[in-house]
Amino acid sequence: MRILLQVSRGIDALTEGVGRVVLWLVLLVALLSAGNALMRYGFSYSSNAYLEAQWYMFSLIFLFGGAYALKHNAHVRIDLVFGRLSKRTQAWIDVVGTVLFLLPMAAGVIYLAWPWAMASWSIREMSPDVGGLPRWPIKLALPLGFALLFLQGISELIKRVAFLTGHLPLPGEEKGVM
Fold this sequence. Notes:
Blueprint: H1 2-43, H2 48-71, H3 79-82, H4 87-122, H5 136-164
Helix pairs in contact: 1-2, 1-5, 2-5, 4-5
């Protein structure tokens, strides 16, 4: 179990690093959006590249921020019942949900999106809009974002199993573990 917990810590560190970059993307996309609006309405200047860059950054925030949200337990959860359950029952629900839903869904998206992204990369796909950006980098972000989510799902699964087997304290009692 010690080796698995080390793997979990490594995945958590990767997710944390990517998440911190994504946090800066939020500021960058807000500034780009404001600048784009200022240029369009203040100076009658518009660019498809600026608009597409906004879309790309917004997509990256969600694709790479998902694993960060999962790590910090900030994802959407129906807490009406879950919050009233014991920590052990919550851990079991997380284990079952991760194994039956999260990991298969993330693996499925990776499996379906990888060939699509590689086909786009192989032809160096560009936006059909005049002055648009290359499309292949954002298409490649889809399987990569879900790969990061898959890895973080593995990390969360390891931590829940470690808790259920007595190798970790109650979730949240040891800062930075769960």
